[in-house]
Amino acid sequence: MDVYLTDRILVGNKALTKTQRAFREFFPKGPDFTQVSDVKLQYALHPINNWPCKCLGWKSTNASFQEELLHLD
Predict the structure, then answer these.
(1) Of the candidates 62, 70, 68, which has an alpha carbon nearest to the alpha carbon of residue 45?
(2) What radius of gyration do the chain's Cα atoms show?
(3) Whole-number Å distance between alpha carbons of 22 and 2
């Protein structure tokens, strides 16, 4: 799994920082992600991916992604 770090100073990274905070609610710093099951990971990602975002017109990232997939056909 690729891990990307963000510069918290930049305004454009604000949403990413919020996502990281939400992710840390499920997984405190320091866990070995090779030991985390796919079920636990999906449990943590579901609310994060389905949370409404102001920058997406209050749609979730998941809904926006699904809409983009429909335009690929």
Answers:
(1) 62
(2) 14
(3) 18
- What integer pLDDT is reported at residue 69 of this predicted model? 92
3-state helix/strand/coil string of the chain: CCCCCCCCCCHHHHHHHHHHHHHHHHCCCCCCHHHCCHHHHHHHHHHHHCCEEHHHCCEEHHHHHHHHHHHCC
Residue 40 buriedness (CB in 10 A; 0-12 / 13-18 / 19+):
middle
**pLDDT tens column, 17-38:** 677 788 888 888 887 888 889 9
Predicted model pTM: 0.59
User: Are β-strands 59-60 and 52-53 bridged in parallel, bridged antiparallel, or unpaired?
Assistant: antiparallel
